[in-house]
Specification:
The protein has one domain (about 5-160): Ribonuclease H-like superfamily/Ribonuclease H (Nucleotidyltransferase, domain 5). The protein is about 40% helix and about 15% strand. It has helices at about 40-55, 80-100, 110-115, 120-130, 130-135, 145-160; strands at about 5, 15-20, 25-30, 60-65, 105. A five-stranded mixed beta sheet has the order 3-2-1-4-5. Helix 1 runs parallel beside helix 2 (about 80-100) and helix 4 packs across helix 6 (about 145-160). The chain is globular and about 35 Å long.
Length: about 180
C-alpha cells in the first residue's frame, strides 16, 4: 500500500512516498518556480507538482501534517502573524488537493501527535540510519522537511487507520544515539 507523507510549507514542502514501512519509493521537495513569488503563487505552483505526484503514484493514504493550534516555547519564535497565516494557507491548499485528487484516505496528525515529543534532529537521524536514500539527503535537508515527510508516512503505517497499532514512536527504526 502506497502512503504519501506531506510536510507542508509555503516555501518548500517535504514529501515522501512509501510502498511499505521499509521502502521509500521517492522523497524530496515540492518547490515553487520562484522563491520570491507571493505566497499564494508559490503554493499554487507546488500544488501542481502535488497533483502530478498523486496522479502518477495514486497513494492509498496521504498523511498531511496540520498545525496543532499551539506553539511550543521556542518554536516559530519571531514568526509574524502573516508568516503563520501563509503556513496555514499552504496546509489548507495541500490538504484540499489531497482530498480532491486522492481516492483513498487523508489523515491529518499534528506535529505533537505524530512525533510523540521526539526532537526533529533525533527523528531525522533515526530515519537516516534506517533508510539509505534519506541518508544521502540528510545533510542537505536543512529544515528536516523530507525527514518529517518520511516520519509522517511511517506514522500512518503504524496508525490504526492502516491496520497497525501505534505502539511507540519509531518502533520500526533502530536506536541511534544523537
Amino acid at each position: 500500500m502506497m502512503i504519501l507523507g506531506l510536510d507542508p510549507s509555503s516555501t518548500r514542502t517535504g514529501y515522501a512516498l512509501m510502498s511499505s514501512p521499509t521502502w521509500i519509493v521517492e522523497a524530496g521537495y515540492l518547490r515553487p518556480h520562484r522563491t520570491k513569488d507571493p505566497a499564494l503563487m508559490r503554493v499554487s505552483h507546488m500544488r501542481e507538482s502535488l497533483v502530478d505526484i498523486l496522479g502518477q503514484y495514486g497513494p492509498a493514504i496521504a498523511c498531511v501534517e496540520v498545525p496543532s493550534g499551539k506553539v511550543a516555547s521556542g518554536q516559530r519564535r519571531g514568526a509574524s502573524a502573516s508568516a503563520m497565516a501563509m503556513y496555514g494557507m499552504a496546509v489548507g491548499v495541500f490538504l484540499a488537493t489531497c482530498l480532491e485528487h486522492l481516492r483513498g484516505e487523508v489523515v491529518t496528525p499534528n506535529e505533537r501527535e505524530w512525533t510523540r515529543g521526539v526532537p526533529k534532529i533525533k527523528r531525522n537521524r533515526l530515519i537516516a540510519a534506517q533508510f539509505p536514500v534519506y541518508r544521502e539527503q540528510f545533510s542537505k535537508d536543512s529544515g528536516g522537511d523530507i525527514g518529517d515527510a518520511i516520519g509522517l508516512a511511517l506514522w500512518a503505517y503504524r496508525n490504526e487507520t492502516v491496520g497497525c497499532k501505534l505502539q511507540e514512536p519509531y518502533a520500526l527504526l533502530p536506536s541511534v544515539e544523537p
